[in-house]
Design a protein that fits this description.
about 10% strand; 4 domains; four-stranded mixed β-sheet; single chain
Length: about 450
């Protein structure tokens, strides 16, 4: 309407353009603009947002699909091992996963189906099946081992997708929340895939410093019924028993090859044991362990049981799902307890870097923990001091057993400066011990 046509006390008529936008959830928005172009500009971002939302996957459905894929792969693995001796499967998969020469192995060349986590998955499936030890299948057990590793790797891969997916679902958290979630995901993956967290020489030094002294030995004896020295004795006995059997079988084959004579019954037996029924080498009984060491039966049995896992009524799917959720039932345990047969000794049985974690889990909720923890912290600090002194020599000042104080909210603020005379009013932080090192020079 031209301006000059406006009459006094008469307002111009406003032209309106309207549109109704329907959201993906079904709700509607009425859009009003003064021009067609303005209305289009209002509608465009809404349409773009709707298209973006439709492109995003339904996270709950995706999570359910992954869980279903894990269950179906577990079923395939169960079918593959059906009719085979579970103990031979575990012995063969150890041969399959462990290279004959670690000097030729690099982490960069390692694929998922070559990690020891695959052995854990297969073991959990077999545990859920009750560790069957009779062979009824016509297929040679060795033929199914690559397939077992492949299916186990697929389960691990799917479980990693679940970890990533939970990270996507947590993207609306604060920065600190996201950082915690990220650390949690990394720890979960680390626990799932990493074995042998310390070199044996380092683990031995740490254990000797922290565990092999009178205070710790007394606590262990009163809580779990044995000491760290007892664990080492059982560990060395297992290594000796399994190692001697393997060396004996290999020696018989080597001697037969060098003699170039007709194979004797003992040589045929050694060949069959190594390549057909290798569990005969790795399966030990309680009596065999007792005959090779000087410890009492109750002590040896307790140690073997703490560092082993047996079928407990949970099925294969339940055990595998726990593994995928970051709660590996086999964590720190390298021995399968076979009812009425003995103990199958696997790689990592009574691993030195797992000893403290497993035993301390038995102590942490007892009245002895506080005293034991203080002694452990003190021993750990002394080990750190010795290590730094080897590095820096006398070029520094050492302050140990430092304790910190902090003003508590709601209480009187205490002076915590160097010249303070009221520091005792501040609350002392519990369980914080620190080594302070001042190095004068490195030259």
């Amino acid at each position: 309407m031209p301006l000059d046509s406006i009459k006094p006390n008469q307002e111009p008529k406003m032209v309106e353009f309207e549109a109704v936008y329907t959201r993906p959830d079904g709700s509607r928005i009425k859009l009003v603009a003064g021009s067609e172009i303005a209305l289009e500009r209002m509608v465009e971002p809404l349409i773009a947002h709707a298209q973006m939302e439709s492109a995003l996957p339904d996270l709950s459905k995706l999570q359910a699909d992954i869980n279903n894929a894990i269950d179906s792969t577990t079923t395939k693995l169960l079918l593959l091992v059906s009719g085979h001796n579970a103990l031979d499967i575990m012995s063969m998969i150890q041969q399959y996963l462990l290279p004959p020469d670690f000097g030729m192995l690099s982490e960069g060349s390692l694929t998922l189906d070559g990690t020891w986590a695959c052995a854990d998955v297969v073991a959990l499936v077999l545990l859920g099946a009750g560790l069957p030890n009779n062979k009824s299948s016509d297929t040679n057990t060795a033929e199914i081992i690559p397939g077992c590793a492949h299916l186990a790797a697929r389960i691990i891969e799917l479980s990693n997708y679940l970890v990533d997916l939970s990270g996507v679902k947590d993207t609306d958290k604060s920065d600190s929340g996201k950082a915690i979630v990220d650390i949690s995901h990394k720890l979960r993956t680390y626990e799932m895939l990493v074995r042998g967290r310390q070199h044996e020489s380092i683990a031995l030094r740490i254990n000797e410093a922290i565990l092999n002294h009178t205070s710790a030995s007394t606590t262990w004896q009163n809580t779990v019924g044995f000491t760290y020295s007892d664990i080492l004795a059982v560990r060395e006995t297992l290594i000796s028993l399994v190692g001697d059997r393997f060396d004996s079988a290999i020696s018989r084959l080597r001697d037969a090859t060098q003699m170039k004579a007709e194979l004797s019954d003992s040589t045929r037996s050694a060949f069959h044991t190594l390549f057909q029924t290798p569990s005969a080498i790795q399966l030990v009984t309680l009596d065999q362990v007792l005959s090779a060491c000087t410890l009492e039966k109750t002590v040896v049995e307790k140690i073997l049981d703490i560092f082993s896992i047996a079928p407990d009524g949970r099925d294969s799917h339940t055990l595998v799902n726990e593994f995928c959720a970051g709660r590996n039932p086999l964590a720190g345990k390298g021995i399968l307890k076979v009812p009425n047969h003995g103990y199958l000794i696997m790689a990592g049985a009574i691993s030195l870097d797992e000893v403290r974690r497993i035993i301390e889990a038995k102590i942490v909720n007892t009245p002895l923990w506080q005293k034991y923890g203080k002694g452990r912290d003190r021993a750990a600090e002394e080990l750190v001091v010795k290590t730094f002194r080897r590095i820096f020599g006398n070029r520094g000042s050492w302050y140990t057993q430092l304790k910190y104080r902090a003003s508590t909210q709601g209480k009187e603020t205490a002076d915590l400066s160097v010249s303070s005379t009221t520091a005792s009013r501040a609350e002392r932080l519990k369980q914080i011990f620190c080594l302070w090192l001042t190095v004068s020079h490195f030259a």
